Amino acid sequence: MFATTGIIQGNTVLTNDYSLEQYNGRKAIITVLDEEKQFDIISDEKLFAVSNALISQNMEAYKELAK
Questions:
Q1: What whole-number distance in Å separates Cα of residue 18 and Cα of residue 4?
Q2: In this predicted model, which residue has the larger pLDDT, 40 or 56?
Q3: For the chain, how long is the longest CA-to-CA vector?
Q4: pLDDT confidence of 37, banded at 50, 70, 90?
């Protein structure tokens, strides 16, 4: 699994991360952050808990991507 940031223009995601080249042609799940909300820095423990919860909620989508 790989994570990076970028911006959306039209239906294209733009990023400056060249390490994405090794994933060329693979399916991806895109999460769009609402920039109107303020974000706080959270501890690693909370981040892992949120990440695990999102993975659990989206397990069916991940299974479809793996096909």
A1: 10
A2: 56
A3: 37
A4: low
Q: Give the Cα separation of 44 and 42 in Å (integer).
A: 7
Q: What is the dihedral of CA 49, 51, 55, 56, to 10 degrees?
A: 20
Q: Sign of the C-alpha dihedral, residues 35, 26, 14, 41?
A: positive
Residues 6+ apart with CB under 8 A from 30: 13
> What CA–CA distances, in Å, run from 49 to 8, 33, 35, 45, 53?
27, 18, 22, 6, 6
Token pair of 33, please? 């952050």
